[in-house]
Write a structure and sequence with these properties.
Elements (H helix, E strand, L loop, with lengths): L1 H36 L5 H32 L8 E3 L1 H12 L13 H4 L3 E3 L1 H16 L7 E5 L9 E5 L6 H12 L7 H15 L2 E7 L6 E7 L2
Antiparallel strand pairs: 1-2, 3-4, 4-6, 5-6
């Protein structure tokens, strides 16, 4: 078992080694410019360079966090600290995480606390997993076109939808997503490792994830629902 875990981590390190190196290369280049030309730069130019250093540092930290997360998952050492969410509370949490200011959806006048199922989720793991999902589907698109809404019909009570309004997904990409959802072993391509990990962690927290695309516009939607 341990040898398999080590093999998986070795594979991941090989696949992401370029991504690990890139932020450092950028940071070193920026720091050399600051050292060589510091007194010739304006305050605004120096501030721009500092922002670039900060962004590169965040990228590096984010990737290291993911590798550590994968390692904990593979070693069955993932601690989950559950917090209870209703569907509307989950919508508010995701909107806040994404920096989206959206009015709460109008819902039927029912006693939702007694009827709607609850989500039992770890907020840190949820944030990391949703971020990886968004990166996979948005393909580098800005987060502003995203909207997150809770379903309001009683038949879908407790379901939360993450809809991408300016992203298109092909049938092939949808099938690829579905295959990753059922895949047991870590994929051997960099673009699929983190989406695979996010799906496994969300499932571990008791979430059922489904994806569908609009037949006309090919706009994808992700649906989160507590497992029965």
């Amino acid at each position: 078992m341990e040898s398999k875990q080590n093999a998986v981590l070795d594979l991941v390190m090989k696949l992401v080694s370029h991504d690990l190196r890139s932020p450092f290369a950028s940071m070193i280049g920026v720091m050399n410019l600051l050292i060589d030309d510091y007194y010739q730069m304006s305050d605004l130019e120096r501030l721009d360079f500092m922002r670039e250093l900060l962004n590169s540092s965040k990228l590096q930290l984010g990737l290291l966090d993911r590798i550590a997360l994968l390692s904990r998952f593979q070693c069955n050492a993932l601690a989950i600290h559950h917090k209870r969410f209703s569907d509307l509370e989950l919508v508010r949490f995701l909107n806040s995480m994404l920096g989206i200011h959206q009015v709460d959806p109008i819902v039927p006048s029912v006693d939702r606390q007694k009827i709607a199922p609850y989500f039992e989720l770890d907020t840190e793991l949820l944030s990391l997993s949703v971020t990886m999902l968004i990166e996979y589907f948005a393909k580098g698109s800005p987060s502003s076109p995203l909207s997150i809404v809770a379903t309001v019909t009683e038949s879908d009570l407790g379901q939360v939808c993450l809809r991408f309004s300016e992203v298109k997904l092909s049938e092939h990409e949808l099938l690829s997503f579905e295959s990753l959802r059922s895949c047991i072993d870590v994929p051997d391509t960099p673009s699929q490792i983190w989406i695979w990990l996010s799906l496994k962690i969300l499932a571990l927290m008791g979430l059922s994830i489904n994806c569908s695309i609009d037949g006309i516009s090919s706009i994808p939607s992700l649906y989160f629902k507590p497992k029965p």
